[in-house]
Design goal:
By secondary structure, the chain is α/β, with parallel strands linked by helices. The protein has one domain: TIM Barrel. The protein is 38% helix and 14% strand. It contains 14 helices and 13 strands. Bound molecules: beta-D-glucopyranose (BGC).
């Protein structure tokens, strides 16, 4: 079944505004390597990958794409693509090895060189301050379960912004606080590998508080900065054979946990009703303190959205099991990525128009900060081209319906370390040979380059 009936001919895709930004995304632990070079401290991922069975085939990010040593080659690839902007992440333990106190100048020097190379290539650096690689020393003190981590994050944000802010004007605080909370602390399938289920909820609040503190720190250092956060959002769907009131309640509960737990406090200054999760105390037992929500709700210059697919849910088969929903499979025979994820471009239109309906004037301009797919190894990747064309069409549809979308960062520039899947999932426009580091652009790379060029012509 074709992903989309739209043409993938770049010149026939919808025309985006002239100032729309075309970009690509990566993250530090997934590409940099140099895991203990130049004074970098260990992160929770350096620890987690050594836990037997944690990552498929025991893969680690010790070398990854070796971007730390090959960044100039990578920037040259970005220049060939014609990117307007590049989203990467700063490794907190490369800059502040133990998460607090002493700053490592060689870590800052690396990002300094990267930023300069990007600017020389005419590409706007768009760093994310936290893409899951928490300094291990902070995890030893409780990680994001501990409120102090939010303050340490604010301090690190200030260090980074003071050094890079003369040249970096668009900052992203956190990557996907929902995924970090649920995979890292709820189910233990990502670092730090803690399986606390709903006891992981303070991780949501402390990350959001850290976001607010980092936002203030970046703005203090860089008055003309734009500050964003990148949230993983999903439209929640029901199967046609499961549409009872209980299923609808399950969908609402899932939407609260995945989407609204993060978007409501940021955009409305309050948490959604968590009674479906047995929480009726607005302070979450003292976790949420006076003034926190005002810090979190500081106006954003943009909301980053990472979109991969919708989520289907039903009422829980066993309501006593703990969660107020069960995850389900869609009934439609959607095409699947190599990861097995359904390819549903119109889910992105639904998501964006749904955000506009829910938040109205409180919704800042939206940036798609991640979107892409894992496909089989090889240079010919028509399914990736279909995926990208379909999702760009879906964004254009949302823009036609009034959603203000400013840019698109595809995930990912390079094949990279895909967390618990190691190197088994390939998301890159560029194929990477992990034995040699050789980079080879795929057909989708040429397609994206032609698309950007045709949008400019
Ligand atoms: C993350 C990326 C990841 C991608 C594909 C997102 O959840 O931010 O780091 O590689 O999805 O799984």
């Amino acid at each position: 079944m074709p992903v989309t009936t739209r043409s993938t001919d770049p010149s026939r895709l919808p025309r985006f505004p002239a100032d729309f930004r075309w970009g690509a995304s990566t993250a530090a632990y997934q590409i940099e390597g140099a895991a203990d070079e130049d004074g970098k401290g260990p992160s929770i991922w350096d620890t987690f990958v050594r836990r037997p069975g944690a990552v498929r085939d025991g893969h680690t990010g010790d070398t990854a794409c070796d971007h730390y040593h090959r960044f100039e080659e990578d920037v040259a690839l970005m220049r060939r693509l014609g990117l307007d902007a590049y989203r990467f992440s700063l490794s907190w333990p490369r800059i502040v090895p133990t998460g607090a106190g002493k700053v490592e100048p060689r870590g800052l020097d690396f990002y300094d060189r990267l930023v300069d190379a990007l600017l020389d290539a005419g590409i706007e650096p768009t760093p994310t301050l936290f893409h899951w690689d928490l300094p291990q020393a902070l995890e030893d003190g409780g990680g994001w379960l501990d409120r102090d981590t939010a303050y340490r994050f604010g301090e690190y944000a200030a260090v980074a912004a003071e050094r890079l802010g003369d040249r970096v004007k668009r900052w992203i605080t956190l990557n996907e606080p929902f995924v970090h909370m649920s995979f890292g602390y709820g189910f233990g399938v990502h670092a730090p590998g803690r399986a606390l289920l709903l006891d992981a909820l303070p991780v949501a609040h402390h990350q959001l508080l850290g976001h607010g503190l980092a936002t203030a720190a970046v703005r203090a250092a860089v008055p003309d900065a734009q500050v964003l956060i990148a949230n993983n959002c999903t439209p929640v769907r029901l199967r046609s054979d499961a549409r009872t009131d209980k299923d609808t309640a399950a969908a609402s509960a899932y939407d609260i946990l995945h989407n609204r737990l993060f978007n409501d406090p940021l955009l409305q200054g309050r948490y959604p009703d968590l009674s479906a999760y047995g929480m009726s105390d607005p302070s979450w037992g003292g976790v949420v303190r006076d003034g926190d929500l005002a810090t979190i709700a500081a106006p954003l210059d943009g909301l980053g959205i990472n979109y991969y697919n919708p989520t289907w849910v039903t009422a829980p088969a066993d309501p006593a099991a703990g969660l107020p929903f069960d995850l389900a499979e869609p009934e439609e025979p959607y095409e699947r990525t190599a990861f097995g994820w359904p390819v549903v471009p119109d889910g992105l239109t639904e998501l964006l128009t749904g955000l506009e309906e829910r938040y109205g004037a409180a919704l800042p301009p939206v940036w798609i900060t991640e979107n892409g797919c894992s496909q089989p190894a090889g240079l010919d990747d028509p399914a990736r081209i279909d995926y990208l064309a379909g999702h760009l069409g879906a964004i254009a549809d949302a823009m036609d319906r009034g959603v203000d979308v400013r840019g698109y960062f595809t995930w990912s520039l390079l094949d990279n370390f895909e967390w618990a899947e190691g190197y088994h999932q390939r998301f890159g426009l560029v194929e990477v040979d992990f034995a040699t580091g050789l980079r080879t652009p795929r057909a989708s790379f040429e397609w994206y380059r032609d698309l950007i060029a045709s949008q400019r012509s």
